[in-house]
Q: What sequence folds into this?
C-alpha cells in the first residue's frame, strides 16, 4: 500500500476546504448530473424493453382479488 505523507494530506484537505465552491462546481455538480442521466437512462431502457402489458394486467387482477378476499375476511371477523 502506498503511503502518502501527512503534509500532503494536510495541504490537500486545506485546499479542498478553502476552495469548496470550486470543488462543488467542477466536480460534484457534473458528477451528480452524469449519475442522474445514467439512472434515468437505465429506467427508460428497463421500461422500454421489459414492460409487458399482459403481465401488468395479470398483476393488477391478482392484487384486486387479494383486496376482495381481505375485505371479505375483515367483514367476517367483524361479525364474530
A:
Amino acid at each position: 500500500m502506498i503511503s502518502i505523507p501527512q503534509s500532503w494530506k494536510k495541504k490537500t484537505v486545506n485546499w479542498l476546504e478553502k476552495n469548496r465552491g470550486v470543488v462543488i462546481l467542477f466536480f460534484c455538480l457534473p458528477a451528480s448530473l452524469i449519475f442522474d442521466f445514467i439512472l434515468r437512462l437505465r429506467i427508460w431502457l428497463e421500461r422500454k424493453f421489459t414492460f409487458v402489458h399482459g403481465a401488468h394486467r395479470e398483476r393488477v387482477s391478482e392484487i384486486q382479488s387479494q383486496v376482495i378476499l381481505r375485505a371479505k375476511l375483515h367483514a367476517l371477523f367483524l361479525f364474530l
Observations:
- The first helix runs from residue 6 to 18.
- The mean pLDDT is 89.
- The chain has one domain: 9-79.
